[in-house]
Design brief:
Number of domains: 2
Oligomer: single chain
Strand order of the largest sheet: 3-2-1-4-5-6-7-8
Shape: elongated
Distance between the termini: 69 Å
Length: about 300
């Protein structure tokens, strides 16, 4: 029996890891005609009404819109190089959600643009379980015309879509920047948990208190970023010297317990260097002057 669809929209998904499977599933649920391909056969099982392509080229030819999400951009470049004819991307749009460097995004953009295809580099800032929610953030950069054409299709994946720039590398750069903040915060989270455990504190209480104070600190972080953008570091909240005293207490506290000292020592040393460079009376955001190396 022939399958019927609510619409005739076609999309191909290349890569069926956790993210790719969830993306394909969302488009199946939205009654798109979905074609999928994966380098390792078998991962299409359980996805329902979906067409499995035997090759990447077959998947690309099947749809005007292609989503690519695999382990790394080196593999993306290998897949593109192995195609029998790169011209199959002519008049098609490739959205690449593969994590990688801004330079890699530029290289892939050139390959697709050279054959008159449209390239969008995306970054998914959500877990697989969060995809499909209005709150799921999708970063996008690259071909503006293609983005405007397919923005509603992107909204199937996540409702908070941010088109950053017509330069494809922009979303990769932003993803790297925000990931830097996430992993830095996570290190602090783990160190704080160990300190709490050392002194017999409830980790449940620790997690609850972090959840309670986090929103206020997010506003503070946004304010400090605004200061960096303006280049205005006059102290209006708390001086860098005040923060130095706090990080010294932090460093001393961790020296008293059996943990790796690199992280707390790094924080303290950076603030010491900033004060030694005459920044003690400025806002904490003045640290940005220290981490940038000038030739």
């Amino acid at each position: 029996m022939k399958t019927t669809f609510k619409n005739n929209k076609r999309i191909s998904v290349l890569g069926l890891g956790q993210m790719g499977r969830r993306i394909a599933q969302l488009y199946v649920e939205a009654e798109y005609q979905v074609t999928a391909w994966n380098r390792t056969p078998g991962k299409v099982d359980g996805l329902g009404n979906i067409r499995l392509a035997e090759t990447a080229a077959q998947a690309i030819l099947a749809s005007p819109l292609i989503i690519l999400i695999i382990s790394n951009n080196k593999s993306v470049l290998e897949i593109l190089a192995d195609l029998p004819d790169i011209q199959i991307f002519k008049n098609k749009t490739l959205i690449n959600f593969t994590t990688g460097s801004p330079g890699e995004a530029e290289s892939i953009e050139k390959i697709i643009s050279d054959v008159h295809g449209a390239y969008i580099h995306g970054a998914i800032q959500a877990s697989p379980d969060q995809l499909g929610l209005k709150s799921a953030t999708i970063l996008s950069s690259g071909n503006k015309e293609a983005f405007e054409k397919y923005v509603n299709d992107l909204a199937i994946i996540g409702g908070n879509i941010r088109q950053l720039s017509e330069q494809a590398a922009a979303s990769s750069a932003m993803d790297t920047a925000t990931s830097t903040w996430i992993y830095g915060s996570f290190l602090g989270l783990i160190y704080g948990a160990e300190l709490s455990r050392h002194y017999g504190l409830s980790l449940k209480d620790y997690g609850t208190i972090i959840g309670e104070i986090a929103p206020e600190f997010i506003d503070y972080f946004k304010y400090e970023v605004e200061l960096i953008e303006r280049g205005d570091f006059r102290a209006t909240q708390s001086t860098l010297s005040n923060h130095l005293a706090a990080t010294q207490r932090l460093a001393d506290s961790f020296k008293a317990i059996n943990v790796e000292q690199t992280f707390p020592t790094l924080i303290n040393n950076l603030l010491k260097k900033a004060e030694q460079n005459g920044l003690g009376d400025e806002e904490l955001a003045a640290l940005s002057k220290i981490i940038v190396k000038h030739s």
